[in-house]
Each structure stands twice: as C-alpha cells, then as structure tokens.
Amino acid sequence: MPDSSGRSCRLHRYRFRSVWLLHAPPAVVYAVLGRAEAYPRWWPQVREVVPLDDRSGTARFRSFLPYELTVVATETLRDPGARVLEIGMRGDLAGWARWTIMPGEGGTRAVFEQEVEVRKPVLRRWALLGRPVFRINHALMMRAGRRGLRAWLARG
C-alpha cells in the first residue's frame, strides 16, 4: 500500500535507457528489431516470443537472476520513416518500450527506452532490497542483447 508520498509505487517503477552502436545500416537494424518473433535467435534472455495476432504477442524473459517475466506486448507505433518501434506491455511488467534507430558513427545508433512498473508479486515484495540487483540484472540483459545483435548482423 503506498504511503502518502507514493514511495511504494515508485519502488516498483523503472526507467531504462540503453544506446547500442552497431556496424550495420539503420534500415537493416530497424528491420531486425521490427521482427520480435526472431529475438530469441540472437538475444539469449528473450526466451520466447509467440505472436497472438499481427500487432501483439507474448514474450518470456529471463536474465541472470532466477526469475522469469512474461508480458503481452502490443505494438503501439511502427514508423519506418522515423525508424521508431514502440510497444505497450501488460503482465509481469506494465508500461512501454521503444526503439529509435538513427545513423551513427560506423553504422547505426539504436536507442532503447523503457518505462515499466513491476507487477510480478514476488518481485514487488523484494522491491526495496532488490532494486539495485534488478537494475544490474537489466543491464546484463541489455549487454547480452547488444552482443547478440552485433553477432547476428555480422552474419549478414
């Protein structure tokens, strides 16, 4: 139950931002990131993506810590001109995530932004003590994703 300051609610909310520099053309990176069902092929922590229809699907994630997150992701924006991909999420996480793809030094600069609230009960119970560890877990997942995508793109 949140106190009058809203502290409890804030403990369950996260805002993340990662920048990946990739040696591939922006159009290629955008196309790969636009195929969420293929993420498990190059991103080890994305365990499964199952399409539900042409705009949504379920996704399961697991990083270093021994817990799994499951969400239903629904595409809210797909703008090839601006090279932006955005989803809304509900399930163990509620919120949104966005990729913004642009030319960068040596190829592409891919910016990942995410704002979510943890809904999984066991993680909510550990919110105060676990918060720094959850953030590290996310950073490790993003680092592995960047490595996986670089290797995938290098395959041509």
Describe the structure.
- The chain is α+β, with helices and mostly antiparallel strands.
- It is built from five helices and seven strands.
- The chain has helices spanning 7-11, 26-33, 39-42, 121-125, 127-154, and strands at residues 13-22, 46-51, 56-61, 69-79, 84-91, 93-104, 107-118.
- The N and C termini lie far apart (51 Å).
- The relative contact order is 0.23.
Write a short abstract of this structure.
The protein contains five helices and seven strands, in the order H-E-H-H-E-E-E-E-E-E-H-H. With 156 residues, it is an alpha+beta fold.
Proportion of beta-strand residues:
35-45%
- Indicate the structural class: alpha+beta
What would you call the shape?
A: globular
Report the count of strand segments: 7
List keywords for this structure.
156 residues; seven-stranded antiparallel β-sheet; 5 helices; 7 strands; disordered N terminus
Write the layout of secondary structure elements.
Blueprint: H1 7-11, E1 13-22, H2 26-33, H3 39-42, E2 46-51, E3 56-61, E4 69-79, E5 84-91, E6 93-104, E7 107-118, H4 121-125, H5 127-154
